Amino acid sequence: MPAERWSHQKTELSDEQFNRWRNLLEDRTGMQLSTERKTFLETSLNIRMREIGCANYDAYYEKLTSGLAGEVEWATLVDRLTVQETSFFRHPNSFELVRQHCQRLYQEQARKHIELWSVGCATGEEAYSLAMVMDDLISELPDRRYYGITATDISLPALSKAREGVYNIRKLERVEPDFSQQYFESYDRGRCRVVPRLKDRVCFAQINVLDLRQAPIRNVDVVFCQNLLIYFQSWRKQDIVTQLAERLAPGGILVLGLGEVLDWQRPDMQRLPFRDTLAFVKRPHA
Ligand SMILES: C[S@@+](CC[C@H](N)C(=O)[O-])C[C@H]1O[C@@H](n2cnc3c(N)ncnc32)[C@H](O)[C@@H]1O
To answer: Most exposed: 64, 109, 213, 246, by fewest CB within 10 Å?
Structure first.
């Protein structure tokens, strides 16, 4: 084991080093790191450097930016640097909006299948909340209807937790008792698991929103993207929101976090007036 692993002392990043790391993070994820988060960056880098026995910031930077080994290491580091805070039904009004919209698609447009996309899904709570809404909705309809959810994130460890679908029971606080009973089963002490009926409807995949142009997702009825773009520069937000809108089917909706994107508009997208939400509908004949 390298000696430096044991003698590793947390050192301060110089301004130049901080800018180099900050630029790397922004180029690869879109996330902007404010100066106030310098200590967070130092701590995260030091923990990881100690784990792999890397002597200093510059050596670690070189490692990360060279070759296949660098790419593998990046997959671990990015998980440590991104904010993955989430919860079930985090913004209830947005889920109510999705429910009402999908109800109209099933009932007024006699749609058999609805496709949804949770962008920046973290550990899966958002995607499973959408699944609960959809399962509950179709259970009320007289004939058989279907839905599918794609849930994507940049972080592989987060996606792997999402696929597992196992959560501490404290996370069910925001879930209606009726839904907790129907959609979760006890797993082990203090933890519960999403029932297969719901889990089978959600497909998790790694997609970096900076690479949306290559993402093979089209004709989605609901794009749900919250608490991801808040960390991005304004021009980048606008670009990503535009690309998300392009993935919508005519009549589909884009649900963002309230106040997350300002001054964004497109002729084929119309703002949806629904209480305390930020959502747009794609004009049916766009
Ligand atoms: C704060 S969580 C939001 C989770 C969920 N959408 C919610 O509102 O509760 C932000 C998520 O965005 C992901 N993320 C950050 N940069 C990303 C990128 N460039 N592409 C895709 N996902 C990204 C993070 O890994 C994290 O899981």
So the answer is: 213
Write down the pLDDT at residue 4: 45
Q: Are 247 and 223 in contact (CB under 8 A)?
A: yes
Q: What is the rounded average pLDDT of the residues 88-97?
A: 98
What confidence tens digit (pLDDT) does each residue in 206-221 have? 999 999 999 999 999 9
Please give the distance, rounded to the nearest whole angstrom, from the Cα atom of residue 182 to the centre of ligand 1. Answer: 27
Residue 28 CA: which ligand 1 atom is closest?
Answer: 19
The boundaries of the domain holding residue 218 are: 92-282
CA 154 / ligand 1 centre spacing (Å): 7
pTM (two decimals): 0.94
- The model's pLDDT over 170-193, given as tens digits with 9 standing for 90+, comes to 999 999 999 999 999 999 989 999
Look up the CATH number of the domain holding residue 158.
3.40.50.150
**In terms of Cα–Cα distance, which of 161, 171, 163 is closest to 192?**
171
Has residue 87 been placed in a domain? no
For residue 264, being part of any structural domain is answered with yes
Q: Is the C-beta atom of 32 inside 6 A of ligand 1?
A: no
Q: Quick one: 73 and 190 in the same domain?
A: no
